[in-house]
Every structure is written in structure tokens, then in C-alpha cells.
Structure prediction request, 145 residues.
Amino acid sequence: MENKINLSFLSKSANEGFARAAVSAFVAQLDPTLEELADIKTAVSEAVTNAIVHGYGHGNGIVTISCALSLDKTVCLTISDAGRGIENIEQALEPMYTSAADDERSGMGFTVMETFMDSLVVQSEMDKGTTVIMTKQIGSDSTLS
Prediction:
């Protein structure tokens, strides 16, 4: 590990933009392309929004982000909440699945994260919360064209 930050903030929708900006500013030291930075910001938005909407149901809670940068220019993001948890992770990872259909959600959050990042791992336990771990190699050919 070369550098690392930890952020914790209230599960308010207004803080989603803060999370994007903070991670983006931290990752900038690796000199990513605009496309790589946009991919990371989009994935962070999706993960934080999931924590707020699905983890806490727009209620009060804490969302935590850990971002680690390694010497090989890999970004490792861990976004976690201590909310409701996911009953069926496999089902939740399916495109178009949403547990908040009445909230006009598209069910594409995990699909977007998978698309824009090199790896995605989702860990969850009912009534204890969810952790999303994503990695992206900066400067590789893994970005979308």
C-alpha cells in the first residue's frame, strides 16, 4: 500500500457528491485519465447510493469509504454500511433487480459498478450491513472505449 484514506459520513443523499469528489481528488495523485476518473466516480456514486437507499432506507446511518492506492497504481475502494444487509447477494447482482421497485430504482447499480471497475466483491449480512469492495488498475487497458 502506498497511500490510504478513510471517510465516514451520514447516510444523506447530499453526501453522495462529497464522496465522489473526495475519492476523485485522492485518486488524482495516480494521474488517471478522465475516463478512468469518471469510471471510479460513477462506481462510488452507485455504491454510496445503494448504502443510503437500500442499506438505511433513507434513514440515519453511517457510510464508510476506504480508498487505498498501491505502488502498481491499483485503486481499492471499500464502501460499507451497517444497515439492513442483502438477503440474496446473487439475486441483487442480477441486472434490473431492485429491492426498492416502488422507489423507481432501475436495479443497475451493481451492474454499473462491475462495468466500470476491474473487480467487484459484495459481502453482506442481514441486519449487520453490506460491504462493497472494488478495484481498478490505473493505466491499464481495462477502461471502456
Notes: The chain has one domain: 3-137. Residues 1 and 127 are 32 Å apart (CA to CA). The mean pLDDT is 89.
